[in-house]
Design goal:
Shape: globular
Largest sheet: 3 strands, parallel
Strand order of the largest sheet: 1-2-3
Strand content: 5-15%
Number of helices: 5
Helix content: 40-55%
Distance between the termini: 7 Å
Radius of gyration: 14 Å
Oligomer: single chain
């Protein structure tokens, strides 16, 4: 099932609430600070068990490699996160692989 309804929000808070509340997976495309904000919002809520674990897929290994290096080299090395928490993130390059991952992990 795919969304075919455009939604506009006047409030950033409500936009983020809807982003989290009705998601069945988080597919994160290359983007800027807003994208990072939404990525870390989802990962933090999963990490702290505030929401059920959902697939968090970063699309584009070239784009996300620097961030993943930072997470591994600093956050994990400094024990700010556990190795299991890194596993929340998946990196995919092939759109078909993204769809297969979501279908495998989510009942649509």
């Amino acid at each position: 099932r795919f969304s075919n309804i455009k939604l506009d929000f006047n409030s950033f808070f409500i936009r983020k609430l809807m982003f989290v509340k009705y998601a069945t997976a988080y597919i994160i495309m290359p983007g800027g600070f807003g994208t990072l904000d939404e990525l870390f919002e989802a990962v933090t809520l999963i990490q702290t068990s505030r929401i059920k674990p959902l697939p968090v897929i970063l699309v584009g290994s070239d784009y996300w490699s620097g961030l993943l290096d930072l997470i591994t080299a600093r956050m994990l090395e400094d024990k700010m996160i556990s190795p299991e928490e890194i596993d929340i993130l998946q990196v995919k390059d092939d759109p078909e692989d993204v769809v297969k991952t979501v279908k495998k992990m989510v009942i649509l």
